[in-house]
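Thread: "does anyone have the structure for this chain?"

Original post by V.I.:
We have the sequence but no experimental structure in hand. Need at least a predicted one for the grant figures.
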Amino acid sequence: MTAKLVRVDPLFPPLWSKVCEYLDMALEVGGGKRDWGLDDIFYSAIRNQIDTWVLLDDDGIFGACATSLTIYPRRRVLDVLLLGTDPHREDGWRLCLEQLSDVARSVGATMITGTGRPGWARKLGCKERRTFELEVSPS
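Reply from O.Q.:
Generated one for you, tokens below.
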């Protein structure tokens, strides 16, 4: 079976509900609910600030993701903001990232970045990068 990544218009309710199902799972498992809600994703997609996608094969939809493109002076980077797949599909996230490589090439990006649960970098065979957060108090 070949997986395919398909961009989803948030104003198309039948597919948008599937996007929400998987992205809500990603928000829950990944601890992203402090940064995003499904309504934030919806409005960001409508404003073309992010793209939303479903991942499907012959059996139907088995994942979804949200991406954005960051354009730096010397390169373009495709940022994976959220990625959720059927928990029974061990290969789901890997298939999604393979498809995102094609998306990245199509927009001239030379790198894909994202965050995920611990161990993803190891499974992907890439450098594990650490990030930090500093709280900034209001003035």
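V.I.: this helps a lot. The first strand starts at residue 4 and ends at 8.
O.Q.: and The longest helix spans residues 13-30.
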